[in-house]
């Protein structure tokens, strides 16, 4: 279950000098409380989206919220809202998301470089994650059992699972075929370009 919604926090309460109360006409008796409304997911603040206010006269105790502000108060309160910074912590979810996306991009680029290096210089024991085509969600493994120049001998795993990282579940000797077959680097590159070869693992590195 995903918990999401909105919440609010009090930012500050300040006087509104030089403005008379629209009801009792008393001067310098207005107090304005500013709040911040923000969206959250799993109770982590995601981003702020509004700054509600409540204006209160300390003389007559009358209050006006954001939707019912008298015209005489709207200008000064608009200026006050513009001068009030949104708490930085209300952006914490967005910041975490940006960091996560950045980390994923860096990790993906590093994984791509490793895959290219492993395909260019294969070793016995390398494991290729493969699938039938780019739209297939079922994955299996090919294990390198021999290297001859630009050609590798591989044995196919006899099982498939709907997991794009099947190595932990499928990489057991008994699950591989005993009959090897050969693939050239050009064939492997074509498979990679078509989305059929999705990852290369070199265990121990």
Largest sheet descriptor: 5 strands, antiparallel
Overall spatial form = rod-shaped
E-strand count:
10
On the 0 to 100 scale, the average pLDDT is 93
Radius of gyration: 31 Å
Protein name: Zinc-ribbon 15 domain-containing protein
Task: Record the SSE blueprint.
Elements: E1 4-15, E2 30-41, E3 44-50, E4 53-57, E5 63-65, H1 71-82, H2 92-120, E6 127-130, E7 140-148, E8 151-156, H3 167-170, E9 181-184, H4 185-193, E10 197-201
Q: In words, what does this structure look like?
A:
It is rod-shaped and about 95 Å long. The chain has helices spanning 71-82, 92-120, 167-170, 185-193; strands spanning 4-15, 30-41, 44-50, 53-57, 63-65, 127-130, 140-148, 151-156, 181-184, 197-201. The strands form 2 sheets. Strands 1, 2, 3, 4 and 5 form a 5-stranded antiparallel sheet that branches. The chain has 2 domains: 4-90, no CATH class; 121-201, no CATH class. The chain is of the alpha+beta class and 205 residues long. It comes from Hymenobacter mellowenesis. This is Zinc-ribbon 15 domain-containing protein.
Summarize this structure briefly.
This protein is of the alpha+beta class. It has helices at residues 71-82, 92-120, 167-170, 185-193; strands at 4-15, 30-41, 44-50, 53-57, 63-65, 127-130, 140-148, 151-156, 181-184, 197-201. The protein has four helices and ten strands.
């Amino acid at each position: 279950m995903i918990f999401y919604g909105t919440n609010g926090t009090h930012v500050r309460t300040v006087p509104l000098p030089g403005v008379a109360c629209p009801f009792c006409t008393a001067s310098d008796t207005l107090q304005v409380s500013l709040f911040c409304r923000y969206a959250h997911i799993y109770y982590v603040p995601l981003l702020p989206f509004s700054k509600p206010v409540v204006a209160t006269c300390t003389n007559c105790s009358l209050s006006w919220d954001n939707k019912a502000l008298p015209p005489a108060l709207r200008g000064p309160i608009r200026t006050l809202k513009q001068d009030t910074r949104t708490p930085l912590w209300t952006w914490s979810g967005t910041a975490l998301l940006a960091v996560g996306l950045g980390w994923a991009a860096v990790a993906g680029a590093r994984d791509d470089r490793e895959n290219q290096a492993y395909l260019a210089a294969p070793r016995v024991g390398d494991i290729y994650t493969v699938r039938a085509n780019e739209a297939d969600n079922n994955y299996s493994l090919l294990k390198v059992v021999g290297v001859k120049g630009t050609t590798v001998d591989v044995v196919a795993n006899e099982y498939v699972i709907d997991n794009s990282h099947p190595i932990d579940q499928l990489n057991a000797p008994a699950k591989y075929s005993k009959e090897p077959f050969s693939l050239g680097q050009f064939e492997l590159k074509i498979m990679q370009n078509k989305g059929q070869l999705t990852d290369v693992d070199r265990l121990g590195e």
